[in-house]
Design brief:
Strands 1-2-3-4-5-6-7 form a 7-stranded parallel β-sheet. The radius of gyration is 17 Å and the shape is globular. It is of the alpha/beta class and 182 residues long. The longest helix is centred in the last third of the chain and has 13 residues. The protein binds iron/sulfur cluster. The site of iron/sulfur cluster has 11 residues, from loops.
Amino acid sequence: MVFIRFWGCPLACSWCDEPLHKDPSARRDLPLETLLEQVDSIGAGISSVLLTGGEPLAVEQLSLLIAELKKRGKWLAMESSGVGYDIPEGLDWLTISPKKALAEEVMTKADELKFIVGPSLSTAQKQEINHWAAIHPNVWLQPRADNNKPNLQANAKCLQLVLASQGRLNLSVQLHKYLNIP
Ligand code: SF4
């Protein structure tokens, strides 16, 4: 899969591990044509592309980028917090990872929902997860990492919730953090 990571996000989650937030000097401003050329060269023979961030929804010309990638026959996934902008047409897979309450119509557009879970949950977080676990077929809990390192208490909390959910919740683990892959 070709991974396109956009810089910037309207939110400021304290645990955010988006590498360009930590080192803005790593950001490169690419015109759309240059980005597509890079996808064409790096992604030759690779059929899948993931748009992530930061927040891809905040990217100018996102719909144009999606149209160009679809013209190239790419299977296109996007991960988003769902905040602030309309979800574009043309995606093959949409992951919404809500960081604040979202309109029901945004949540139901998602092929999967991914909740980031710390060592403890507020009552409101529990209610939201339970609500979506009851009505959405694909709900994942991901233990929150702190300082880019696995948080064992968060892991334990996720596991407890998943095991108690009778199959309604799934566990998503960021393997690269265990394998020390940046
Ligand atoms: S929504 Fe995601 S990219 Fe934005 S600040 Fe929060 S964790 Fe970082």
